[in-house]
Amino acid sequence: YNEADFVTVHETGQQNLAAIPAQEPGEYCFRIQAFIPGTEITAGSNIVCAQISFLPQPQYFLIRKVSVEEDSDNVQLIFHTDSTVLDPAYVVKRLDENSGSFEPLDTLLSGQETVSFTDISSMAAAKNEVYSVEILDSCRVKVWQSDEISTVFLTAEPVSLVLNELRWNEYMGWEQGIAEYVLQRRSGEFSTFESIAAFAPGTTSFTD
Questions:
Q1: Separation CA 95–CA 147 (nearest Å)
Q2: In this predicted model, what pLDDT tens digit does every residue of 86-132 receive, in sequence order?
Q3: What pTM, to 2 d.p., does this model score?
Q4: pLDDT in the model for residue 194
Q5: Distance between CA atoms of 70 and 61, rounded to whole angstroms?
Q6: Separation of alpha carbons 31 and 8, rounded Å
Q7: How far apart (Å, rounded) are the C-alpha atoms in residues 179 and 159?
Q8: What phi and psi, each to the nearest 5 degrees, are found at residue 176?
Q9: How many CB atoms lie under 10 A from the CB of residue 144?
Q10: Residue (of 179, 171, 155, 170) closest to 66 by Cα position
Q11: Residue 44: left if φ>0, alpha if ψ -120 to 50, beta else—which one?
Q12: CB within 8 A of 13, min separation 6: which ones?
């Protein structure tokens, strides 16, 4: 080994343990050099080498939908992922408005191509909920971070005896965007929803 083959990757005064992340697969060799303070006098260790390889990475990951269940305020997430990845884990996170950060809800272990999760603690009846999913490999290292995706939160406010003003936020998370929004209405709790209007993307209000 030539002196020029080595680069300094970590300096320490007292520690005798260091974790050095590898950026690329291949063979990595290491040695430790001790320095006398204020001088260039050194004492070197033996050289140790290790072969580093990375686990296969997922080739695709898509959150198919995030939708509020019709008979509850629970939110269902369905996503498609690369099932050829060995022993993956999926960390489902939800945006905490108070902290502004995504907090983990659950970690799912699945080797299936389609994975679903139901958030039973959501506040989807009071606000739109925003989610994100992390994929961990079999070493539980993060290898993929999904885009943010949100529910649609609908409000209705009477503006007269016969008119209601409806407002909603745009659905967020589909790479291809929204084709249209369809407004559905029913009379009473047990009747069937019927479509009454369709809107172009970007529309977020309607007076019925």
A1: 12
A2: 888 999 999 999 899 999 999 999 888 999 999 999 999 999 999 99
A3: 0.72
A4: 92
A5: 26
A6: 10
A7: 29
A8: -80, -5
A9: 18
A10: 171
A11: beta
A12: none
